[in-house]
């Protein structure tokens, strides 16, 4: 993860806080704009700064002298004084409500000033008891919208999408890794299992116990910490932005046992401990014991070996048959991130993305990819800048031109084609025929409409290679459309259509159980990030994590194929007709 996202996030939070404090709109906008630019920047901002200094930052569009200096300060020192000062003045718990659609800084400010609202609970109370509706400019309709939005968000009940936690966890781990006292560090818990949402984060460090306090101090002093909950010799706990992170320091001889214990899941652990008991052993977070004698616990392998099993990948540890599979020697050999040869779902400036084709090609080359399918929206998806046929052709020519100058990387001509209400596609077949990769998706549906038929019909089209985000859900935001996923999977098998695991942090559909069902039916899965910015290409990690939770192996994944084999695979369905 680059510093770009980190700095972008800080600037964004700063903008929220300043707006809440009543700063002039022009200044607030300046921070927001800078945040967007940094996040969308294809170049690493730290590299840029090292090469060109403050001027390099100042020359970025939307970044003036003042913001450039703050960014430089952050790059140099890991802190931003302005940010710390401003954050000390605002109730951070309350500001998190800004993520709820329909709640803006001015709403919060009014509730703060007039109704004494200081926390999230306070806010929920004034929504429910009608006092918010009595404030000038509010009224029952507006408050009703807020109430509904709050309900959806609280269906997450304090959990946050994996992809929002991911960058923070990476940063924490990286900072701990470089400490001299730290021998090993891993995120554990639901995060390590790559569950689509995480409650709190559990970080585990192997170190000599005499170094515990120093490690925990470094942890609670990290820049994103808004509140320290505990800070001791072996344990610490702090709120990072909106995330609770617990850290534990354990000695090397029991690190494996602790990592196994705190990775969970609880059900998996209970099953494993029962196996141990049958063998007269005891597994705890401290080690594997026969009577009082420790017989293992330095590594996770030792823990599993004690009950006659090989090591089980964390993504499988949900007690969904992985222990039995391990007993039979039939664990899947899960797809790995390094086996992914390219991204098959990326947006460019041609529709609603921020990166040019050249920038996408450059970023993909740096990631070691062999190909990227640039799948912009089709013409009827107006709100997302869908391309009419002429523009699509123009873009295709651009791709041909750029490809001539690329070595070892290819842009594929793609489209995320809308599936229209009658199941037909948003481009005529002769246009689709010019594309290398066609991924079809539903973007508009009537409330309560069942879209199964639409998608089934689209899959019968020989030019449709794959179905994008097959359920349309947005984690914690909307349920998605009504669709019979098993019917889609069966039709995919019958027609040779691929199904996507969309890695966009709010989507992650197919989800883990759907992916597993698809695999069982023998359907090939395509992984795409749906990146709208260069800074979102890393989301391939989320797609791979979801695939692994679905027991998906390399041979089940379309974009684990090298370019030549991919091209063959993409011709198959068309040639059948
Ligand atoms: P989360 O935080 O809700 O996303 O889910 P986890 O899985 O990270 O759960 P968490 O943070 O409560 O606990 C971390 C791990 O510690 C969990 O995955 C398994 C282990 N653990 C926690 N409570 C128990 C328990 O009562 N029994 C057993 N066997 N393991 C537990
Ligand atoms: Ca946890
Ligand atoms: Ca925990």
Account of the 3D structure:
This protein is of the alpha/beta class and about 575 residues long. The chain folds into 4 domains: about 130 residues, Orthogonal Bundle (DNA polymerase, domain 1), CATH 1.10.150; about 100 residues, Beta Polymerase, domain 2, CATH 3.30.460.10; about 80 residues, Beta Polymerase, domain 3 (2-Layer Sandwich), CATH 3.30.210; about 240 residues, Alpha-Beta Barrel (TIM Barrel), CATH 3.20.20.140. It contains 24 helices and 17 strands. The strands form 4 sheets. A 7-stranded parallel β-sheet has the order 11-12-13-14-15-16-17. α1 crosses α7, α20 runs parallel beside α21 and α22 packs across α23. The two termini are about 45 Å apart. The mean pLDDT is about 95. The site of one calcium ion has 4 residues, from loops.
């Amino acid at each position: 993860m680059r510093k770009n996202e980190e700095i972008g996030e800080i600037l964004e939070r700063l903008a929220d806080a300043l707006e809440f404090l009543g700063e002039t709109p022009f200044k607030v906008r300046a921070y927001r704009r800078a945040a967007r630019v940094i996040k969308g920047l294809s170049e690493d901002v730290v590299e840029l700064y090292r090469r060109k200094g403050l001027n390099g930052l100042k020359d970025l569009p939307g970044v003036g002298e003042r913001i450039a200096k703050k960014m430089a300060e952050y790059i140099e020192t890991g802190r931003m004084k302005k940010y710390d000062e401003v954050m000390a003045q605002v109730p951070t718990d309350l500001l998190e409500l800004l993520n709820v659609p329909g709640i803006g800084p001015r709403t919060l400010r009014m509730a703060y000033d007039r109704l004494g609202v200081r926390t999230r609970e306070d806010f929920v109370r004034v929504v429910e008891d009608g006092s918010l509706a009595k404030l000038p400019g509010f009224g029952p309709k507006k408050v009703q919208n807020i109430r509904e939005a709050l309900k959806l968000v609280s269906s997450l009940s304090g959990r946050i999408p994996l992809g929002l936690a991911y960058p923070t966890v990476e940063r924490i781990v990286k900072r701990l890794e470089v400490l001299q006292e730290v021998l090993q560090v891993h995120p554990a818990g639901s995060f390590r299992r790559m569950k689509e949402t995480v409650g709190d984060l559990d970080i585990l460090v192997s170190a000599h116990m005499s170094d515990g306090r120093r490690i925990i101090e470094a942890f609670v002093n990290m820049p994103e910490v808004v509140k320290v909950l505990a800070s001791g010799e072996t344990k610490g706990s702090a709120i990072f932005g909106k995330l609770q992170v617990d850290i534990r320091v354990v000695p090397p001889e029991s690190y494996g046992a602790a990592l196994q214990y705190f990775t969970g899941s609880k059900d998996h652990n209970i099953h494993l401990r029962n196996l141990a008991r049958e063998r007269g052993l005891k597994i705890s977070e401290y080690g594997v014991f026969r009577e009082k004698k420790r017989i293992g616990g330095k590594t996770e392998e030792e823990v599993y070996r004690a009950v006659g099993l090989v090591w089980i990948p964390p993504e499988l540890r949900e007690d969904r048959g992985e222990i039995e599979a391990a007993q039979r020697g039939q664990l899947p050999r899960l797809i790995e991130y390094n086996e992914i040869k390219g991204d098959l779902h990326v947006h460019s400036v041609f529709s609603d993305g921020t990166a040019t084709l050249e920038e996408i090609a450059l970023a993909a080359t740096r990631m070691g990819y062999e190909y990227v399918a640039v799948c912009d929206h089709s013409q009827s998806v107006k709100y997302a800048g869908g391309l009419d046929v002429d523009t699509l052709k123009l873009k295709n020519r651009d791709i041909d031109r750029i490809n001539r100058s690329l070595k070892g990387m290819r842009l594929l001509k793609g489209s995320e084609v809308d599936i229209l209400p009658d199941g037909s596609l948003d481009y005529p077949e002769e246009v689709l025929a010019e594309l290398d990769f066609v991924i079809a998706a539903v973007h508009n549906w009537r409330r309560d409409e069942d879209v199964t038929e639409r998608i089934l019909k689209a899959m019968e089209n020989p030019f449709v290679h794959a179905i994008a985000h097959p359920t349309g859900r947005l984690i914690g935001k909307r349920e998605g459309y009504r669709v019979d996923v098993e019917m889609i999977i069966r039709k995919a098998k019958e027609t040779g259509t691929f199904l996507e695991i969309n890695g966009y942090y709010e989507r992650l559909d197919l989800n883990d159980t759907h992916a597993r069902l698809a695999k069982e039916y023998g359907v090939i899965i395509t992984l795409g990030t749906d990146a709208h910015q260069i800074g979102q290409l890393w989301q391939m990690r989320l797609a791979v994590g979801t695939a692994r939770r679905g027991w998906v192996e390399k041979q089940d994944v379309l974009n684990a194929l090298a370019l030549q084999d991919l091209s063959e695979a993409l011709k198959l369905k068309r040639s059948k007709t």
